[in-house]
Specification:
The chain has 249 residues and is mainly alpha-helical. The protein has 10 helices and 2 strands, in the order H-H-H-H-H-H-H-H-H-E-E-H. The longest helix has 33 residues, at 110-142.
């Protein structure tokens, strides 16, 4: 791939601006401030969730990297946020298993609601893993023969764009919360018609999100690259289909 073609592709797919000079890059103070804020946020959230001890070593390691200002700092903070999310999800699943079986909801079996909630948590996990896989796919692409000698592959702008992919591709966050709220309302509903109406509303949200995933330029571009094929969109849709199946009973 020619240099101009690579530059155009990086700008179109990843949103990295065209290079303006060959001057060496220096650590970005604003980026360092942002990473520090994210690090402190992880520490505070870990305290609230009661998992600070599980992250103590990784927090120290990431803190050292952030203070050093090296390119690996972003990846360490990303990994730390991912690990915190995993721990929080594990707590949610444990709490769900403890509370779901306390009493059968009116008009729905304990097993049905348990399956729906567990599939909801599984979908959250699948989307988080898909974003991490997307980041890894980009790193693999930039390490391929076409990009490995290109200085832009390690520029702060490129690494920052990869780190923020979770904010770029379609997210499960809003839809996941709507489904969680729906399950709460379904559990308290006494009429079958009300439960069906709630389920249909959640299913509409899932259909809309699947449409956005299928139309996402980033995910489409990464399906087949010169560094390999990454079926990330397919895994997201499969997770949504599992949740939809549970909602449909």
């Amino acid at each position: 791939m020619a240099t101009k073609e690579k530059d155009d592709w990086l700008q179109r797919v990843l949103g990295v601006p065209q290079p303006t000079s060959n001057a060496p890059t220096t650590p970005d103070p604003a980026r360092k401030k942002e990473l520090t804020a994210r690090l402190l946020s992880v520490r505070d959230d870990a305290k609230v969730q009661g998992v600070l001890a599980d992250l103590a070593g990784a927090l120290r390691e990431a803190g050292t990297a952030v203070q050093g200002g090296g390119p690996e700092a972003e990846q360490k903070v990303d990994a730390l946020e991912g690990r915190l999310a995993e721990l929080v999800r594990a707590l949610r699943v444990q709490q769900a298993r403890q509370t779901i079986g306390e009493s059968a909801p009116p008009g729905g079996s304990v097993v049905d609601f348990a399956q729906a909630r567990l599939r909801l948590e599984a979908a959250r996990t699948a989307f988080d893993e898909a974003v991490e896989d997307l980041k890894a796919a980009w790193m693999a692409l930039l390490a391929s023969d076409d990009f490995v000698d290109d200085p832009r592959s390690t520029e702060p702008a490129t690494l920052a764009a990869i780190a923020s992919l979770g904010e770029t591709v379609p997210s499960f966050g809003e839809v996941g919360q709507r489904i969680e709220d729906t399950l709460d309302r379904m559990a308290n509903a006494t009429e079958a018609s009300q439960r069906e109406a709630e389920a249909k509303e959640a299913l509409r949200g899932i259909t809309e999100l699947k449409g956005r995933i299928r139309a996402d330029a980033m995910l489409n571009a990464m399906e087949h690259t010169e560094a390999g094929s990454y079926a990330i969109a397919g895994r997201m849709i499969e997770a949504l289909d599992d949740v939809a199946s549970a909602l449909q009973g």
